[in-house]
Specification:
316 residues; alpha/beta; Alkaline Phosphatase, subunit A; six-stranded mixed β-sheet; 12% strand
C-alpha cells in the first residue's frame, strides 16, 4: 500500500472508530501497521516550508509532505487546547463529546487509544495531556514524559524570550513513569522540552514489540511562552521575516476576547518590530521541534520500523 493511501486509510480508521478495526488476534496476525501520531501545539498551517513558507526551515516535516499527503483544506473546528485535543482523542466534535469550552469527556465516548487497544495494539502516550483524567483512563497502556499540571511548583523560567512574564503552563511538570514530577527536567515550559518528549518517544520505539503499536506524541511547541532553544538564537533574522498580510496595530473591532490571556501576551498597540521578533522565535521553536521529530523518524528507520508505520502529523 503506498503512503498516501496508507494515510487516507488511517484517517478513515481514526474517524470511524471500532467499525474498521479487527479483533485483537487479527491485528496481531495480519501485520497491521504501527501508528505514530505527532501533534504540535498552536502551530499555524503556514509554518512548514514545503507548504509555501520560504522563510522557515522544517526539513523533516518537509519530508513528510513530500513522501505523504498534506490535507491543506482541513481545519481545526474548535481551536482551543482542551477542546481540540478532546476532538483528536474522540474523532468527534466537541459539541458532542462533552468538551465544547472545556469540561469533561462523556464517559461513553470511545477514544482513539481505546479503539486501537481493543484491536490488539500497544497504546503509548508521550507529552502534553490537557483533557480531564489521565492517559491510562483513556485507553493508553503506558506513558512516558507525561506533561501535565496540578502541581504547586514554581516555574523554572519566569520570563519568555522577550523578557515578558510567563503566564502559561505555570506549575506544569514532566512526570516519571510512576507519575511523580521529574523536577530535573524543569517546571513549566523549558527550552529543551521538545527534546525530552523525543527522548521518551524513542525509548518506546526501541522496545520492538511483536504486536503493532499506537504511539501518540504530544509536543508543546510552539505554544507560548516562547523560549529560545539552545543553539537557535540568531537562526532567524527578524528583519528578513515579512509581516503577516493582515497585520494591524490593533483589532479593528471587538471580537469578544480582546482582553483574554492570549491577547495580553504582548502590549497594545502591536508594532512591526515586535511581530517580527516574535515570529523569529516562533520559527526557531518550530525548527527545534522539527529536529526532534527528525530524531523520532530516524529511530523508526534504525529499528527497521519505518516501512510498516503510518505517520500522522497535525496540530491542535
Amino acid at each position: 500500500m503506498n503512503l498516501p493511501l496508507q494515510l487516507a486509510c488511517a484517517a478513515i480508521t481514526l474517524a470511524c472508530g471500532t467499525s474498521l478495526v479487527p479483533s485483537a488476534n487479527a491485528a496481531a496476525t495480519r501485520g497491521w501497521p504501527n501508528i505514530l501520531l505527532l501533534v504540535s501545539d498552536d502551530q499555524r498551517s503556514d509554518t512548514i516550508a514545503t507548504l509555501g513558507n520560504p522563510h522557515i526551515r522544517t526539513p523533516y516535516l518537509d519530508r513528510l509532505v513530500r513522501q505523504g499527503v498534506a490535507f491543506t483544506r482541513a481545519i481545526c473546528p474548535n481551536p482551543l487546547c482542551v477542546t481540540s485535543r478532546a476532538e483528536i482523542l474522540t474523532g468527534c466534535t466537541s459539541f458532542l463529546n462533552g468538551v465544547p469550552y472545556g469540561g469533561r469527556l462523556r464517559p461513553d465516548m470511545p477514544t482513539i487509544a481505546e479503539t486501537f487497544r481493543q484491536a490488539g495494539y500497544h497504546t503509548w502516550h508521550v507529552g502534553k495531556w490537557h483533557v480531564h483524567g489521565e492517559p491510562k483512563t483513556r485507553g493508553y497502556e503506558e506513558t512516558r514524559a507525561l506533561y501535565s499540571g496540578g502541581g504547586k511548583f514554581e516555574n523554572t523560567l519566569k520570563r519568555d524570550h522577550a523578557g515578558r512574564e510567563v503566564t502559561g503552563y505555570r506549575g506544569w511538570t514532566i512526570k516519571t513513569a510512576d507519575g511523580k514530577p521529574d523536577l530535573e527536567k524543569g517546571v513549566g515550559l523549558t527550552a529543551e522540552i521538545s527534546r525530552h518528549f523525543a527522548d521518551a518517544a524513542i525509548e518506546m520505539l526501541n522496545r520492538r514489540t511483536p504486536e503493532p503499536f499506537f504511539l501518540h506524541v504530544n509536543f508543546t511547541a510552539p505554544h507560548d511562552p516562547l523560549i529560545m532553544p539552545p543553539g537557535y538564537a540568531g537562526r532567524y533574522d527578524p528583519a528578513k521575516i515579512p509581516l503577516p498580510p493582515n497585520f494591524l496595530p490593533e483589532h479593528p473591532f471587538d471580537h469578544g476576547n480582546a482582553r483574554g490571556r492570549d491577547e495580553l501576551l504582548w502590549p497594545w498597540p502591536r508594532t512591526p518590530q515586535m511581530v517580527r521578533e516574535e515570529l523569529a522565535c516562533y520559527y526557531a521553536v518550530i525548527s527545534h521541534m522539527d529536529g526532534q521529530i527528525g530524531r523520532i523518524l530516524n529511530a523508526l528507520r534504525a529499528n527497521s520500523q519505518a516501512d510498516n508505520t503510518i505517520i500522522v502529523f497535525t496540530s491542535d
